[in-house]
Design brief:
serine/threonine-protein kinase, ATP binding, protein biosynthesis, transferase, Phosphorylase Kinase, domain 1, two-stranded parallel ribbon, alpha+beta, 6-stranded antiparallel beta barrel
Amino acid sequence: MSNSRNNLSRSARVSHCRLFASGPFKNVYAGHYTGGARAGEACVAKESKSGSVYEAAYFEEELTIICRTQQLIDDWHDAAIINKRILLNTPQIWIYRTTGTKAPVEPTFGPTGLGPDRICSFFYLRRRG
């Protein structure tokens, strides 16, 4: 049984009209997958507040942390340390076609409340090749 949720998609549309969530270092924007196995499902793009992050090392470190977290979750599951299933969203680093800015994109748990009539000013994303 997999303990991770992955993109499984080729493209997404992300709305910058409305902030989905915000933290100390990142803004999160909601969207939906437009291609691949998750087409039509909700996703989020997480963008750095300090401006565009271009250094590959930043994204490599972020993905390394997620990979290590996944290893811990898998180890807990295999050892039956907890009696609940934990799922980790595993993002991919995608690039905005319009700006070239990189952002982690991942599936969303649960509904986003983002209907087709509330979406505007889309930026298309493509997976980094």
